[in-house]
Q: What sequence folds into this?
């Protein structure tokens, strides 16, 4: 996905605190909250909502910044100048900066999104703000709310003032800001290129399951699950831990009352091309039969994630397409659509050892070219997690408590 590009120096009034002498943490993710994808992602091209889905309503001009956020940092946003340590990552939706609170020596990630392409009825970033406001889970990055500015923010990095240009080439007049916890770690994409053990992969898969299961119960679908959006680190005992980041494509699943949890079908074209679900692809290439999609997109992406973890980054469908990475995003989608229709079966590389229980789970998640909805309870009950000759069983309750304890000790 494209990056916010270009900058120019400007004179600014020093509204923020003096530049700190303290150093930023040595370990930092490359793309926290960004969309710097290796496979071409899709812009948020809404092709119209399903008939029973609620239409977007007018959104508030000012979003809510949590009272948990230090007053000095709130003031920087409202005053119009943010003093940051460095850039963590960039993407089509904006730029993510490392932001420090001098008083507490605590670090935050602040995502600044130019308001260029999207109008007031559907401001880009609002759904991410809504999700970070509603979601509170130790395996998902914590948000502290957001704010929509009345003018372009000035970002001061290492004492050098600059105004970022938008991805679309012009300096905007307004920004949206999201504030999240800073999570030291590495992208799972980079980690899985090395040597993750079967037990590490199983633990990562179990933690991602807990996060997605929680998200679905809260009424959200994630829609962009991939290794680049998962941070990996090890706790004090050396156990693998993950954190899901970047809720930019997260969308409400539930309409009506909580007692009538009706699934909202969407036909928005979002996410990353090599994990595109058939429900999305049909919307574009076979609209006459398209019926949209719901939570099954996350089961589908979860299956592809497992495939990538065991094959160190291979993709079950896009790797079968010649010169896939050199195609335009549209042509990638078209190639994915035809490849899944041509051969929906999952083929595993012969030179990689993968437990049979893992292969079976992946096939069931990616059956018939669609992510057939098998409930998270069914996934939990699969031998990949209950135990086999290759892998021990996972105690999900104990794992969750361990994760909570690890989080509390940070």
A:
């Amino acid at each position: 996905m494209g990056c916010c590009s270009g900058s120019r120096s400007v004179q600014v009034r020093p509204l923020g605190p003096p530049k700190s002498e303290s150093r930023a943490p040595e370990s930092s993710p490359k793309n926290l909250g960004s969309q710097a994808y290796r496979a071409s992602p899709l812009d948020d091209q809404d092709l119209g909502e399903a008939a029973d889905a609620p239409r977007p309503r007018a959104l508030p001009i000012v979003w809510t910044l949590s009272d948990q956020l230090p007053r000095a940092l709130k003031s920087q946003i409202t005053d119009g100048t943010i003093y940051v340590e460095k850039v963590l990552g960039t993407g089509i939706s904006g730029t993510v900066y490392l932001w420090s609170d001098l008083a507490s020596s605590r670090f935050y990630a602040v995502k600044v999104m130019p308001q260029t392409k999207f109008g007031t009825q559907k401001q880009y970033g609002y759904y991410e703000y809504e999700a970070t406001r509603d979601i509170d889970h130790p395996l998902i990055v914590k948000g502290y709310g957001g704010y929509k500015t009345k003018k372009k923010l000035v970002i001061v990095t290492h004492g050098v003032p600059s105004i970022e240009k938008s991805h679309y080439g012009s300096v905007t007049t307004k920004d949206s800001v999201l504030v999240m916890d800073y999570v030291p770690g590495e992208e799972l994409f980079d980690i899985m290129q090395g040597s993750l053990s079967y037990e590490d992969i199983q633990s990562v898969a179990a933690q991602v399951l807990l996060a997605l299961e929680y998200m679905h119960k809260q009424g959200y679908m994630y829609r962009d699950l991939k290794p680049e959006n998962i941070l990996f680190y090890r706790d004090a005992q050396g156990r693998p831990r993950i954190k899901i980041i970047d809720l930019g494509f997260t969308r409400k699943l539930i309409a009506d009352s909580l007692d009538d949890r009706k699934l909202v079908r969407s036909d928005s074209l979002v996410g990353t091309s090599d994990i595109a679900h058939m429900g999305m692809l049909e919307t574009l290439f076979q609209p006459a039969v398209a019926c949209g999609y719901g939570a099954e997109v996350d089961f589908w992406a979860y299956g592809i994630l497992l495939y990538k973890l065991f094959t160190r980054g291979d993709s079950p469908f896009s790797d079968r397409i010649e010169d896939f990475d050199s195609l335009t995003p549209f042509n990638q989608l078209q190639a994915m659509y035809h490849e899944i229709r041509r051969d929906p079966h999952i083929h595993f590389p012969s030179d990689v050892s993968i437990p049979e229980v893992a292969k079976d789970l992946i096939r069931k998640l990616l059956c018939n070219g669609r992510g057939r909805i098998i409930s998270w309870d069914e996934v939990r009950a699969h031998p990949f997690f209950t135990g086999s000759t290759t892998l021990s069983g996972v105690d999900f309750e104990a794992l969750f408590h361990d994760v909570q304890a690890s989080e509390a000790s940070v």
